[in-house]
Amino acid sequence: MSDSREIYTNQSGVHDNLEKVVTKHLNAEFRKPPAEHTVNAFHAVAAVIASQPDRPLIMDSCCGTGVSSRLIAQAHPQAWVIALDRSAKRLAKEYDEPLPENLIFAQVDCVDFWKLARKAGWQLHKHYLLYPNPYPKSVQLKYRWHGHPALADLLALGGLLEVRSNWALYIEEFCVALGIAGYTTHTSEAAEVMVSSVTSNHYEAFKPGDEYMTLFERKYCQSGQTVYCCLSQLS
């Protein structure tokens, strides 16, 4: 069985400043200029998808070595699957199986790529954020995706957003942030709840199927940890 430490945090619940931070980011443009390598990668990806523009777009952000990206591409052969990660080393991992023809890897800063995609008017069919870095210290709220200045760009891309984590509080905060932004969250495909305030608590344990989506998911589950999932239809 794999050994994985559970997350330690000095927070006792949803961050006291979450509503303030989310509201600020939703009402202010994130002015960070995109890095040149991400701009170049975006144009390269855009050129590929322009060859078959009618295909739905699925994004797998912070995809790591691309285990999830391959599974997503195989499950959605009709769609373009755009897999993003900042690490060339992780993206360069070799597999025995050939790359699905609908899968596009890009070494980018996700924050910059989201901004460029939003500016270009992209609308996603699905968007995966699987086991993002939790940044568990209270002072690190602004580094979590739901507390990051890029939140507005992330939400504007639309689609069915799926977030998974082994930290219940991360998912709880993400659901609350979505509620502040006016979105409905789903704790499973069959259940739907409206998150309307920072005191809402709508998330649940998630049991992966026979095939783990990521190496982290496998490690967490095989070490006996509970993983959590939140879904939201953004468009």
TrEMBL record:
Top-level taxon of the source organism: Bacteria
Keywords noted in UniProt: Methyltransferase, S-adenosyl-L-methionine, Transferase, tRNA processing
Top EC group: transferase
Keyword Transferase carried by entry: yes
A GO molecular-function descriptor: tRNA (guanine(46)-N7)-methyltransferase activity
UniProt EC number: 2.1.1.33
Regions annotated as coiled coil: none
Catalytic activity: guanosine(46) in tRNA + S-adenosyl-L-methionine = N(7)-methylguanosine(46) in tRNA + S-adenosyl-L-homocysteine
Free-text function comment from the UniProt entry: Catalyzes the formation of N(7)-methylguanine at position 46 (m7G46) in tRNA.
Protein name, per record: tRNA (guanine(46)-N(7))-methyltransferase
Species this chain originates from: Leucothrix pacifica
